[in-house]
Amino acid sequence: MCPAPHERIVFERAPDPVEPTPLWIHVALGVVAGGIILFALWFGYQKYQEYRVMRVLEAAANAFQGSMEQMSEQSRKAAIERRRALEAQNQARQQRLEESRLKMEQERIAREAQLDAKRDRAEYMKKLSDPKCQFWLDNLRSTGCAVTVFT
Q1: Can you give the pTM of this predicted structure?
Q2: Taking CA atoms, which of 32, 42, 98, 148 is between 20 and 30 Å from 81?
């Protein structure tokens, strides 16, 4: 069948092997993709904020730890200084006690020596007052020998 010359010839397209997808599917896919992109951006921003907060908290924790270590070091040094001061005080006190003990010992020895000297003098005087001693002393004086008697 051939067309008549006065009829229009209409060319028809061959049907597509795949049906075109409706517009609403394209819109839905765009909305989903946009939602995913927006969610990824929001999630990334939240993680960034969390990272910033964690960095601030970490910096604060490090500063606090440094402060605590510094306070610990200061208290340790203060304890060492107190211990040294106490040791110096104890040593000075011990030295004073030792000097006091030595002084008391010397005074005791001096008192004993003084008592011994008094006792010896008393014995000497007692012997001099003995009649036998007086006889010999008188004999020595009469012979001209000098005898000094300490009174």
Answers
A1: 0.41
A2: 98
- The count of other CB atoms within 10 Å of the CB of residue 69 is 10
- Among the listed residues 72, 125, 127, 41, the one whose alpha carbon sits nearest the alpha carbon of residue 49: 41
SS3 per-residue string spanning the chain:
CCCCCCCCCCCCCCCCCCCCCCHHHHHHHHHHHHHHHHHHHHHHHHHHHHHHHHHHHHHHHHHHHHHHHHHHHHHHHHHHHHHHHHHHHHHHHHHHHHHHHHHHHHHHHHHHHHHHHHHHHHHHHHHHHCHHHHHHHHHHHHHCCCCCCCC
Position 150 confidence tier, pLDDT thresholds 50, 70, 90:
low
Per-residue pLDDT tens digits for 103-112: 999 999 999 9
Largest CA-CA distance found in the chain, in angstroms, rounded:
204
What are the distances in angstroms from CA 30 to CA 42, 80, 102, 144?
18, 73, 105, 154
